[in-house]
Amino acid sequence: SHVVFRPDGRVIARYDGRLRLIETASAQVRLRIPAEREPPGAAPEWSPDGRLIALASGDGVVVLDGLTGKEVMRQLLGQGGARALAFSPDGRRLATAGQDTTIRLW
Predict the structure, then answer these.
(1) CB-based burial of residue 26 (10 Å sphere; 0-12 exposed, 13-18 middle, 19+ buried)?
(2) How far is residue 92's CA from residue 47's CA, in Å, rounded to a whole number?
(3) Contacts (Cβ under 8 Å, ≥6 apart) of 43
(4) Neighbours of 27 (CB within 10 A)
(5) Beta carbons of 51 and 67 less than 8 angstroms apart
(6) What is the model's pLDDT at position 52?
(7) CA torsion sign, 70 to 95 to 47 to 53?
(8) pLDDT tens per residue across span 9-51
């Protein structure tokens, strides 16, 4: 299980194969996303502006809108999926590091 704050500190993402976004002020769950097929391979990563959240599973990566949960991008990576995620400082690119030691930019 992974827990990360949104950059503004107002929301916590908890990810254990399913995603829950929890408001820090009220502790209310504001969004639930059902479980992926595989357990999480890496901690979720918020974009710098907090609009997007990237999630890794055993076979790929998915990027969701951080307010609605709508899927923005999904990539199957193979070779063990993503083990680390990082948005670029401007939020326009996502880097993934795989178990096979490959780094990909999206």
Answers:
(1) exposed
(2) 9
(3) 2, 4, 15, 85
(4) 8
(5) yes
(6) 96
(7) positive
(8) 999 999 887 899 999 999 999 999 876 655 566 789 999 999 9
pLDDT value of position 28: 96
| DSSP-derived secondary structure letter, 36 | P
Query: Tokens 């990360």 label which residue?
Result: 4
Geometric angle at alpha carbon 103, from 20 and 55, rounded to 5° = 10
Amino acid present at 78: G
Average pLDDT, the chain: 87
DSSP conformation letters of 31-95: EEEPPPSS--SS--EE-TTSSEEEEE-SSEEEEEETTT--EEEEEE--TT-EEEEEE-TTSS-EE
Helix then strand then coil, % of the chain, to nearest 5: 0, 50, 50
pLDDT in the model for residue 80: 64
Tens-digit pLDDT profile for residues 68-99: 989 998 887 665 677 889 999 999 999 988 87
Which two three-digit tokens encode residue 2? 């992974």
